[in-house]
Amino acid sequence: MAVLFSRIKGMLFLLFLPCFCSGQSTPPLLRFSILLDPSNMVYFRWDHDEQELMTFELHVHTTGWVAFGFSPHGELPGSDIVIGGVFPNGSIYFSVS
């Protein structure tokens, strides 16, 4: 679990690093996508490279926050959770637990 957590934390850092370091946002070329809910409020895009590094993008219509889980078995127990959102002043936060 600790290894998975550290890999996810590193993956999130790699995922968000281009957004914070670049003056302009260039959308990554992601080959796979799916709408995750029937009301089309959650859109997920992803891809992976030869070294199995996964890059993903999550678009969510929300009231200020979103949570996303990673699990080797697709279940909540034992999963790693990412929580992110926007404070009223416009600053962004992310937390991994």
UniProtKB/TrEMBL annotation:
<dbReference type="GO" id="GO:0042420">
    <property type="term" value="P:dopamine catabolic process"/>
</dbReference>
<feature type="domain" description="DOMON">
    <location>
        <begin position="40"/>
        <end position="97"/>
    </location>
</feature>
<dbReference type="InterPro" id="IPR000945">
    <property type="entry name" value="DBH-like"/>
</dbReference>
<dbReference type="GO" id="GO:0006589">
    <property type="term" value="P:octopamine biosynthetic process"/>
</dbReference>
<dbReference type="GO" id="GO:0030667">
    <property type="term" value="C:secretory granule membrane"/>
</dbReference>
<protein>
    <submittedName>
        <fullName>MOXD2 protein</fullName>
    </submittedName>
</protein>
<dbReference type="GO" id="GO:0005507">
    <property type="term" value="F:copper ion binding"/>
</dbReference>
<dbReference type="InterPro" id="IPR045266">
    <property type="entry name" value="DOH_DOMON"/>
</dbReference>
<dbReference type="GO" id="GO:0004500">
    <property type="term" value="F:dopamine beta-monooxygenase activity"/>
</dbReference>
<dbReference type="InterPro" id="IPR005018">
    <property type="entry name" value="DOMON_domain"/>
</dbReference>
<dbReference type="GO" id="GO:0005615">
    <property type="term" value="C:extracellular space"/>
</dbReference>
<keyword id="KW-0732">Signal</keyword>
<dbReference type="Pfam" id="PF03351">
    <property type="entry name" value="DOMON"/>
</dbReference>
<dbReference type="GO" id="GO:0042421">
    <property type="term" value="P:norepinephrine biosynthetic process"/>
</dbReference>
<feature type="signal peptide">
    <location>
        <begin position="1"/>
        <end position="23"/>
    </location>
</feature>
